[in-house]
Amino acid sequence: MSTCSSSGASGKNMYSGTRSDNPNLTPEEREAVRLFEEAAAQPMEIVDRSGDTLHIYNDQRMSFREIYETLQSDNKQRIDDLFADEFSFDEDDRLTSEDLMEEVMDLHQGNRTGAFLILPFVANKQITLDTLGMVIHVTNDENISILSVYLSKNTTPDEATAEMLRFKGMLQSLGQQVDPTADNVKDYNCEPGDPYYREYIENSQLNQQTHLLTSEFSTSMTINESDFLGVWLDVSDWKKMWKDKEARKFYYLLQSCVIFADFVIY
């Protein structure tokens, strides 16, 4: 590599990574990066119940594989287990976790809570006001599988626990069970100065005769110190989604996003 002071040096080797002014990128790569930079400059904005304005910035773009390889073994297994019912399809129509690996994902990080969300690059995002407060909804043009996100910045851990109970009440109003199994709870509330608590819940319904999956609902609820992050995934038309390979693939991406959603722990 030439130094900046070398005769004839253009300085292009000073550029690195996916910046739109990197002259080493192809025109297609440069356009993709330009769109990412525009999105990063316009964060999602929500107002929590206390009136605090929270921004969620588009921080990084990466492949699903890059994320998967950083996961702990239990979360890798959770993602692999998502595909357990694919055996009901012919081999050509069957999906595995390997089919997600080259999908492009965006990492979004909160500016005041440390919450982070990993969402599909192709997803549409909309913020609405409902009974919980401001909620981010993530879907695609098919609008069958919908991931929803609720984030609250609180003053004390007790307030965060109250937010979790409100969140559970909302899930119960949707007809969902909210009691996690012991292996789906991470309780580090005894950690001095950095209490952390997380529940992951998955509710499945099977056909009584064929024992095949007919619907599934998943959610994660996380408290980090005094902040609360709740995400849940719902499917508006399970039969339509289950028959469409691409729709199932997007569903599995969103299922993975439920698993990914967490707080940055320093």
Give a written overview of the molecule.
The strands form two sheets. This protein has a seven-stranded antiparallel sheet, sandwiched between helices. The chain has a five-stranded antiparallel sheet with strand order 1-2-3-4-12. The longest helix is centred in the middle third of the chain and has 17 residues, at 157-173. It is α+β, with helices and mostly antiparallel strands. The chain is built from six helices and twelve strands. It has one domain (42-263): Mog1/PsbP, alpha/beta/alpha sandwich (Protein Transport Mog1p, Chain A, 3-Layer(aba) Sandwich).
The number of helical elements comes to 6
- Read across the widest sheet, the strand sequence of neighbours is 5-6-7-11-10-9-8
What is the total tally of β strands? 12
Proportion of helical residues: 25-40%
- Measured by DSSP, the beta-strand proportion falls in 25-35%
- The level-1 CATH class: Alpha Beta
Major β-sheet, in short? 7 strands, antiparallel
The CATH topology annotation reads as Protein Transport Mog1p, Chain A
Task: Please state the structural category.
Answer: alpha+beta
Superfamily (CATH H level) name: Mog1/PsbP, alpha/beta/alpha sandwich
| Average residue-wise pLDDT | 86
Intertermini distance: 36 Å
- H/E series: HEEHHEEEEEHEEEEHHE
Sum this structure up briefly.
With 266 residues, the chain is of the alpha+beta class. The protein contains six helices and twelve strands.
